[in-house]
Amino acid sequence: MSQRTIKYAVMDAFTDEAFKGNPAAVCILEEKVDVDEQWMLSVAKEFNISQTCYLTRVISANGSFPNSCNQSATVPHFGLRWFTPVTEVDLCGHATLAAAHFLFTSVLVKHESVEFVTRSGLLTAKKISQSKDGKEKFFIELDFPAYQVVGCDASELPSIPLTLNDVPVVNVLKATTIEDFIVELSSGKEVAELQPNFQEIEKCAGRGIIVTGQAPDGSGFDFFTRFFSPKFGINEDPVCGSAHCSLMPYWSRKLNKKSLTAFMASPRSGVLHLELDEKSQRVRISGEAVTVMVGTLLA
User: Fold this and answer.
1) Torsional class of 247: left (φ above 0), alpha (ψ -120 to 50), beta (otherwise)
2) Of 47, 28, 41, 175, nearest to 116 (Cα)?
3) Could you tell me whether strands 223-229 and 209-214 are parallel, antiparallel, or unpaired per DSSP bridges?
4) Considering just the CA atoms, what is the radius of gyration of the chain in Å?
5) Total domain count, the chain
6) How far apart are CA 107 and CA 124, in angstroms?
7) What is the CATH number of the domain that holds 103?
8) Domain of 13?
9) Cα dist from 4 to 57, 112, 298, whole Å
10) Quick one: 105 and 90 in the same domain?
11) pLDDT tens track for 147-201
12) No. of helices (H) and no. of strands (E), the chain
């Protein structure tokens, strides 16, 4: 029996420079390719980066887009699933941006939008063209749910002083739905210089810990963030888009602004442009991506 080939690409998301931002592997599964979750997880382990995602075109038996999507058939729909090296996750921002970039550059070159059917509902990605320094480039805008933040019980967290190596803490909260813990420090500089204790972070009840602080004056950003999730096989996620589903409502209230620019202060770094729609409780997350690798997998 001959082996099947599956196209893949590795994208660096939330950056315009290769080997920066957050890498994600994007695999597109054609109609006749039938693979199971164990294979998907094995491939994610093989890539061994923060996220590997899988795209499948969503078409009903009569060849049209399913009514459940509640959209015009002119908008392409794809199923989208995300895997870390150890588990499937419900939502991932940077891999969604990477998947959209792959589609807009290789599959849907004449389209301006695409919708993804996911475990977190229907997610939209739009291509936004811009001119910069005389060159045409494009951003991708993701439409994600907004998550509110609430207080948390101290028993849900490991020792904060041990976790953050005694860095002073301003506030500790928890994001609803995804249950990330949010720890605000007194400055973005402290966020960038933080050396966390991953063994302590792994003891927390939620997915991981978001550490954030107001950006320094003159930096061009509103706030800095880093995200740590060792229990999901990611000591530090270089740029976490889904974390901003809760960070945007939090910083929007704190800074009294509906549009913010966020900087992920990991060693690879990344930039996210954010807008909050309070009425619909959605967050629009925009960024760039770069293709760094293409190839085929055997299944």
Assistant:
1) alpha
2) 28
3) antiparallel
4) 19
5) 2
6) 16
7) 3.10.310.10
8) 5-144+287-298
9) 18, 30, 6
10) yes
11) 989 888 767 776 776 777 778 888 888 887 777 889 999 999 999 999 988 988 8
12) 6, 18
